[in-house]
Structures are given as structure tokens and as C-alpha cells.
Inverse folding.
């Protein structure tokens, strides 16, 4: 249910329980800000409301939430000021020349995504290091920084973290946008103005995108086939780049794989540094769950075995992990029970049913596909022979295992003749780099990948 609708239903109910003066005084100016990790955050007009509502109407509110949502929420009462830090910062005020209207341009940065709450593991270590380097010295080291990887692995989080870091440590102007927003702005710029206003969209657009120090553009794959937009982005890119302004781009695939983009854009994306984020391994998944438990102020203790269970069953994607945790907390609140392993198994059963627990592309399958393709035996592929007709396919297979499964580097090492995890990392890096310069290899990998899926 939409939160405003939910709140209006609850207020209706409260109205019937209170006399009208009490209702007017304590509830008429309230608002449901959001439901977040089992907590209902309610905005009240004055500090006095916080205590009074909790002291007098807590049970009533709990009852209403339960009736409406079938869930128990903890209540948190806030003043509007308490949440300003969640509002993105305004970087610029733009006045139209003729009509003198004022427009605010926001950085769109979300303060909740920072380096401090980004957990680093093998699968994102390189991306994290590159992001931090760029945050510390924007426009100088890697320009553009191109971050790619599947959905839910932390690209958006890292990009906001860079932006927030820069804003905090310098007076540079940072603009975060998704590529859809860029397209929308571009479309408005070209809109014929028939409403009679003299708003100058072209001026506004140029001002917004070229008058900044850092441009963060998320999910560039959605810049799509609209070639006019691509042209405009190309010009924006060039202007910023030539002015040594930092550009940070994310995408679901590597620059070379962005088929819908013009060559000249793809080439430019490769000028700086491209880093990819892999799916988190078991260790990182557990570490992220622990971090979220602290970060989201989950007050109920969650036993280690539950964390292990979640990390082991919910793989692939960090967004799913967060969803599972929220569900677990809400579930235990609903039943008023402690969080235990059987409760977690029950609560997360639906996750398995909905297919949110990722299917594994197992290592054995990848080994078979690669061995067949190169016409070598699986035993050789898994063994210790070092001749190049075997070691090269082995490196490819290890790379594919890391990319397509949730197995950690050490675990993959075990599957390939007991190799050390640094050897596996080295092989993955090597293949990764080679793909960029060797079109044949890129094609082969692509083919293998299709066969594995
Ligand atoms: P993407 O943009 O790659 O689809 P997001 O950045 O939106 O992924 O991440 C999805 C969710 O997972 C976000 O809530 C984010 O905070 C969280 N997340 C991703 N990676 C990490 C990490 N390494 N540490 C903590 N949280 C993470
Ligand atoms: Mg994203």
C-alpha cells in the first residue's frame, strides 16, 4: 500500500477513537515519512508531540499499523528538521533571463551511501580502491572512471559515496543523475515552448551539465539508441573532460559491450579506468549483513547461525540480502518472537519460492563447457599441467567461475587443482585485461557465457 494512503487510513481510524480536539492537536499535522526496516517513521510538527504521542497513543498506533499492514512496526517520531540531512544538497540556483524565474539544481546525492558503510571484499576491492582514489583527487587520476557489473552489486552506492566524499572535502560542485534523467532533460530542452513562457531550456541544460566539477551518470546503458541524446552527451563529456572535470559512469556491462552506444562514446569511456564489481562471495555477504544490522539499528539480536544461514542461501545480489533482512526483522516483529534459525527459515521461505535465491551456475558446468570448447579433458582443466594449450583455457574457466558463480577466489582455486587464491585473482585480472584488447577472445568468452547460461 502506498504510504500516504496507509497513513490516511490510520488517521481515519484514530479520528474515530479520539475527541476532535485531541485529534486536531496531536495528529492533524502528522505525516508518515517512510517505513524502513520494521520502523514506521512519522513526522510531527513540534518536539512536544514526540513524547505526548508515544506516552498516550503508542498502543493505538501499534494497533492501527497491525490492522492495516499485518505487521508490527516500531514507531519513530521525527521533526522535519531531523530529516534534512537526507535531502540532497542544492548546488545551484538558476534564474531565467527574461522571466526571472528561479530553478534549483540539486546534486541528487543521497547522504546514506558513503564509503564508511560500504563493505569491502574480494569482489569489489578494486572498484572500491579506484572509487576512493577518484574521490580523493577528482579529475586527475582516472578520468572517466567507469564502474560496471550486474544489478544490485553496489555501483550506485559507490558513486554516491564518491560524490558525498567530494562534497564533504572540497567545494566542488557534484551532479549525480541517471541516464534517464539526462534523456528527460534533453527532451525538455528540445521541447517547443508553446506555453508562452520564455524559459530557455537550452541555456538551462548547458548550465546544469557544463557548469559542474564532477558529473556522475548512473546506468549509462539506458542512454539507449536515442542518437541525438548520445550526441549531446558526447559534447557534454568533451566539455567536461577538456576542463579536467571528473566524470564517473556506471553500466551493467563493460564499455566494449555497450552495443547501443556510438563507437566514439565507447572509445572515450575507455580513456580512463574501467573496473568491474563481481557478485559477493560468502564471506562478504556475511560481512554486509552484519554491517546492515548495525547500520539500520536493528535492536533484536541476530544469532551468528542466522547470519550464516542468510549468507549461504541468499546469494548473487546485495539488494536481495537487504530485502531478506528487512523481511526477517518484520517477521519477528509480527510474531513478537526472537530471531532464531527456524524463524529465519520460515521467514525466508518465500524468497526461495520467488526465485530470489539465485541459481548457481556451478563450477562443474563451467568446466565442462570450457573443456568441450577447447577440446581438452576436464581432468586436465582441473589439474596442474602448465602447457599453454591447457593453462589458457584454465584461466578462462577460472575467470568465468568468478564472474558467473558466487564462489570466492580461494574456493575456485580449490576447484582448479588446489591453486592459491592469488593465482586465481591474477588469472581473472589477466583475462579481464586481455578481453579489452583482443576482440577474438572477447567473442569466445561471450560464446562460452551464452552456453553456460
Ligand atoms: P547497483 O547500483 O549495482 O544495482 P546498488 O548500489 O543500488 O547496486 O546496491 C544495492 C544495495 O546494496 C544498496 O542498498 C547498497 O547500499 C547495498 N550494497 C551494495 N554493495 C554494498 C557493500 N559493499 N556494502 C554495503 N552495502 C552494499
Ligand atoms: Mg544502480
Amino acid at each position: 500500500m502506498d504510504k500516504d494512503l496507509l497513513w490516511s487510513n490510520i488517521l481515519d481510524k484514530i479520528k474515530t477513537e479520539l475527541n476532535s480536539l485531541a485529534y486536531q492537536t496531536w495528529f492533524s499535522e502528522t505525516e508518515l515519512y517512510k517505513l524502513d526496516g520494521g520502523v514506521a517513521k512519522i513526522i510531527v510538527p513540534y518536539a512536544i508531540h514526540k513524547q505526548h504521542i508515544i506516552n498516550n497513543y503508542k498502543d493505538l498506533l501499534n494497533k492501527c499499523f497491525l490492522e492495516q499492514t499485518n505487521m508490527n512496526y516500531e514507531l519513530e517520531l521525527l521533526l522535519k528538521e531531523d530529516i534534512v540531512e537526507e535531502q540532497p544538497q542544492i548546488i545551484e540556483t538558476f534564474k531565467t533571463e527574461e522571466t526571472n524565474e528561479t530553478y534549483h539544481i540539486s546534486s541528487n546525492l543521497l547522504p546514506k551511501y558513503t564509503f564508511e558503510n560500504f563493505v569491502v571484499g574480494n569482489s569489489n576491492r578494486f572498484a572500491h580502491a579506484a572509487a576512493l582514489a577518484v574521490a580523493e583527487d577528482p579529475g586527475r587520476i582516472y578520468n572517466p572512471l567507469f564502474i560496471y557489473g550486474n544489478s544490485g552489486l553496489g555501483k550506485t552506492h559507490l558513486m554516491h559515496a564518491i560524490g558525498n566524499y567530494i562534497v564533504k572535502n572540497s567545494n566542488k560542485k557534484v551532479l549525480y543523475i541517471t541516464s534517464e534523467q539526462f534523456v528527460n532533460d534533453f527532451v525538455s530542452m528540445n521541447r517547443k515552448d508553446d506555453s508562452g513562457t520564455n524559459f530557455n531550456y537550452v541555456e538551462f541544460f548547458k548550465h546544469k551539465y557544463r557548469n559542474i566539477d564532477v558529473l556522475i551518470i548512473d546506468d549509462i546503458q539506458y542512454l539507449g539508441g536515442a542518437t541525438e541524446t548520445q550526441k549531446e552527451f558526447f559534447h557534454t563529456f568533451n566539455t567536461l573532460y577538456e576542463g579536467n572535470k571528473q566524470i564517473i559512469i556506471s553500466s551493467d556491462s563493460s564499455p566494449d559491450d555497450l552495443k547501443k552506444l556510438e563507437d566514439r562514446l565507447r572509445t572515450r569511456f575507455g580513456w580512463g579506468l574501467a573496473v568491474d564489481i563481481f557478485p559477493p562471495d560468502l564471506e562478504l555477504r556475511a560481512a554486509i549483513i552484519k554491517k546492515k544490522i548495525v547500520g539500520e539499528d536493528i535492536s533484536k539480536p541476530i544469532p551468528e547461525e542466522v547470519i550464516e544461514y542468510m549468507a549461504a542461501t541468499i546469494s548473487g545480489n546485495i539488494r536481495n540480502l537487504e530485502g531478506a533482512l528487512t523481511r526477517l526483522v518484520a517477521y519477528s516483529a509480527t510474531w513478537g518472537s526472537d530471531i532464531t534459525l527456524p524463524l529465519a527459515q520460515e521467514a525466508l521461505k518465500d524468497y526461495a519460492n520467488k526465485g530470489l535465491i539465485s541459481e548457481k551456475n556451478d563450477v562443474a558446468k563451467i568446466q565442462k563447457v570450457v573443456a568441450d570448447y577447447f577440446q581438452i579433458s576436464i581432468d586436465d582443466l582441473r589439474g596442474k599441467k602448465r602447457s599453454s594449450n591447457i593453462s589458457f583455457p584454465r584461466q578462462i574457466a577460472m575467470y568465468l567461475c568468478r564472474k558467473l558463480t558466487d564462489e570466492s577466489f580461494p574456493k575456485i582455486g580449490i576447484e582448479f587443482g588446489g591453486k592459491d587464491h592469488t593465482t586465481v585473482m591474477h588469472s581473472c585480472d589477466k583475462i579481464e585485461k586481455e578481453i579489452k584488447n583482443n576482440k577474438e577472445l572477447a567473442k569466445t568468452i561471450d560464446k562460452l557465457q551464452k552456453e553456460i547460461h
Summary: The first helix runs from residue 3 to 17. The chain has 20 helices and ten strands.
